[in-house]
Amino acid sequence: MNHGMSRFIDHYIRSEAEKARADRAEALAARFAERAPRHDREGSFPFDNFADLREAGYLKITVPRAFGGDELSLYELVMLQERLAYGDGSTALAVGWHVGQVMHLRTTRKWPEPVFAELCRAIVEDGAMINTFASEAASGSPSRGGRPETTAVPAEGGGWLITGRKTFSTLSPILDRFVVTAYLPDEECAADFLVRRSDRVTVVETWDTLGMRATGSHDVVLDGAFAEPGMRLSGKGADDGAGWMLHIPACYMGIALAARDYALAFARTYRPNTMDKPIAALPAVQQTIGEMEVALRSARSLLYEAADRWDKEADRRPSLKPELGLAKYAVTNNAIKVVDLAMRIVGGTSLARSNPLERYYRDVRAGLHNPPMDNAVLATLAASALGETPED
């Protein structure tokens, strides 16, 4: 494809099919961008955006073709998620957990096949969605290895009764089923269970945050919620290196791209009455734009390279964790920097609630608190470096 003077966001498109998909995601993003200020202000869940995503077939992009999905690659998932986040970070991050986890289940096959098949059919036919609720106030992020305080005890006649409270439960307002991590006192181990929403499940609207205000990441309280006999999910299966979690940096890259483009448009058009040209002509502004480009382009190349390697090197996926972690670290930290530089170009008006940069500035900070966290990535990279065998 001849890009010529095409937009920077399009540089990683490799085919006409990818271009068509990207265009569809962009059309959705434009609609989401119009609604984003209201959902951000209210902290309300964007049901309207999810109706549009379902209608557009977006919820099934990572479902295997065998079940009627698109079975997209990780590279393509990153490309589409980036574009959705360009319009609304909250919606992109929230739907990313769904499409990402479906991809994870597809590559690991860690669920019993009939359970996975039923989920896939429900996604394709009814627009069902999935997420895993693992975080708790006492044990913190599950990525840090805390034991869940949520418990699962055998129910009479089979199945389990699950009791506990989960935090950061993204998509909770809309899900009719979800996975919970619970501790089994009888077996002294933790396991995942697929639970359907019932009167034993309550969403407590606790999500009132600085950024990502429309992800619906409320607390979910389970009071003896029932998990059917076949719904204890083994968690065994292939190790896919958790490549699916690149949906997270893809989201923050999308926000950074939106901030960059806003600042560029401002610099090209804003002309104070002391100047005969727009501020883009000022060397100081060009210098700041150059700094933005270094941060953005270097991080974005790491993101796409990591996704591409994960797609192509299926047998090496577990050993790609350092690269995947590096992509997340570089993107989230550089995205924060890019939004900051964009605001310096735009000046004081970027602080106004009516200015999208103000929302990007708050949303982009959330990336630091999505897994893998910075210190975990640095530890992985250090272990990888120290584990190298030097040549004799």
Automatic annotation (TrEMBL):
Residues of the Acyl-CoA dehydrogenase/oxidase C-terminal domain:
251-366
CDD domains reported in the protein's UniProt record? ACAD (cd00567)
Which cofactors? Answer: FAD
Where the record annotates domain Acyl-CoA dehydrogenase/oxidase N-terminal, the positions are 17-104
Please provide the record's keywords in A-Z order: FAD, Flavoprotein, Oxidoreductase
What Pfam families does the database record attribute to this sequence? Acyl-CoA_dh_1, Acyl-CoA_dh_M, Acyl-CoA_dh_N
Q: Where is this region: Disordered?
A: 136-156
Q: Where is the Acyl-CoA oxidase/dehydrogenase middle domain?
A: 134-223
Family matches, as PANTHER family: ACYL-COA DEHYDROGENASE (PTHR43884), ACYL-COA DEHYDROGENASE YDBM-RELATED (PTHR43884:SF25)
Stated family: Belongs to the acyl-CoA dehydrogenase family.
**Protein name listed in UniProt:** Acyl-CoA dehydrogenase
